[in-house]
UniProtKB/TrEMBL annotation:
Stored Pfam families: DJ-1_PfpI
GO terms classed as biological process: methylglyoxal catabolic process to D-lactate via S-lactoyl-glutathione; proteolysis
Organism: Lentzea xinjiangensis
Alphabetized UniProt keyword annotations: Hydrolase, Lyase, Protease, Stress response
Keyword Hydrolase: yes
Gene3D superfamilies, per the entry: 3.40.50.880
MF annotations from Gene Ontology: glyoxalase III activity; peptidase activity
The name this protein goes by in its record: Putative intracellular protease/amidase
Family: Belongs to the peptidase C56 family. HSP31-like subfamily.
Domain DJ-1/PfpI: 30-227
Keyword Signal carried by entry: no
Amino acid sequence: MSKILIVMSTADVWERTDGSAYPTGYWAEEVAAPHEKFTEAGYTVDFASPGGVLQPLDAHSANPEVAGPECARYAEHAERALREFGPLLELSRVDVDDYVAIVLPGGHGPVVDLYRDADLGRLLVEADAAGKIIGAICHGPAGLLSAVDAEGRWIFAGRRMAAFTDEEEELFGTAENAPWLLGRTLREKGALHSGGPAYQACTVRDGNLFTGQNPASSAPMADAIVAALAK
């Protein structure tokens, strides 16, 4: 049976430029919706993180006033999937050849650790070279920044992608005092980053790279990956 790897951050705090600590964790819908789509399509899903550490749930993603009416179902699904999987795989020990796709969900964690994680960078470089599918949702595209080749070049420069926009960060109330903004940084690094209306589903495919702008994009991006794998 073919396997898909979901790579999670380990961060539970996002340090701000004013010295405050913003609690974070994985965003329930961004883990649950792809996991649900992938397993329904017959794929086995593994979870990995730096050091195999399990990140907590971002409480905002279980608050219906923030995350919408289905958030409780997503939180329950994600927590159950992670509990049943057991200890997460250590990212440093993952072999990219074991997987047909690598997917990076968000929450603010990836802007804390995954953007500079060398093990993730190695996996993404190897996956891209092999033409394997790479997916990233919301703040997950921060993890793509880790993928630097032997010459120090970012391998996703010039690629079209979606990610949580600067506008959405401002509307969410986390742009002020953020150490850096994802959309702006992706563009500065050479990505062709574009966005749709705030908090509306928006997915972008560029070859083997599939990206989603925000939590609402999680299921559509997963559907696109499943369809591509079927071909």
